[in-house]
Amino acid sequence: MTLGELWRIALGAVQGLGGIAVFLLVLLIGFCLVLDRTKYRPNRLSRVTKNLGDNTGKPVEYLPPDAPRGPIDQLANSTPRP
């Protein structure tokens, strides 16, 4: 076996592995794009829910900006451990 033959075998192996890696990468990206588009279908009958409001049917109610939120420093009365 000559050096040229070994070089062709090594080059073929690298090309084969590179081709397989590119094929699997394209396949994975394709599946991710297809499944991502079906995940966020706009209809209400979709099996995937983006939040719990989709299941209950009630709109989400947020707190007003001036609502009291409790103490600011929750660790103020804590004591350090020895």
Strand content: under 5%
The helical percent reads 40-55%
Q: Output the helix-strand order.
A: HH
The counted number of beta strands is: 0
Q: Given the C-alpha coordinates, what overall shape results? A: elongated
Q: Mean pLDDT, as a whole number? A: 79
Tell me the major beta sheet.
none
Explained architecture:
Helix content is 51%, strand content 0%. It is mainly alpha-helical and 82 residues long. The model has no long low-confidence stretch (mean pLDDT 79). It has helices spanning 3-39, 52-56. The protein has a domain at 1-39. It is built from two helices and no strands.
Please describe the topology of this protein.
Layout: H1 3-39, H2 52-56
Quickly list its features.
82 residues; mainly alpha; 2 helices; elongated
Describe this structure in a few short sentences.
The protein has 82 residues and is mostly helical.
